[in-house]
Amino acid sequence: MFLRRYRKTRSINGSFLHAFLKIRNCCKKRFKEIYPEIAQQVWDAYKAIDATSFLAKIAALENWAEEKLQGTGSALRSVQKLCAKADLFVLTFEHPTAYRTSNMIDRHMQPMDRWLFYTQSFHGHLASAEKAVRAWAIFHSFWEYCPRANVRKKFKSPAHKFNGFVYHDNWLHNMLVSTSIAGAK
Length: 185
Fold this sequence. Notes:
The protein is an all-alpha fold. The protein is built from ten helices and no strands.
């Protein structure tokens, strides 16, 4: 249920990053000479300090694109789609500490989505589905970071980052101790 709702809101809202990537794919080859200006205007709007300046920059981008990209098809449509979602993107200014792109949540949702696909999603009752998702989330918290990740220099896993310590060097032993009553402090 949650994943279906997540996918639906993502497909409706999208993210600013994905909207920019669509513009980049449509414009980079065909409009080599003006693509840097398009990209600069898009990222200037993204970096706006408040909702008013964001909306003003989006309106300026839309006017500029309609003038420069007349009759170009997909390039103009992709800019217009980003501009049409301005009322959704402007909501981020109500939450100044929130991320404006979905990249951080995607990093956690993609492995969960794959896991749900391989387990053929939810079978049985709602209670068993909830327990399965909770179990996956616990495993995900204790799996070690990639050795190449910068965060690995300080922390072994998300649980280590959250708790500030580990009980055991082995991730599975650490998870078992942490989730048992013996791990309570």
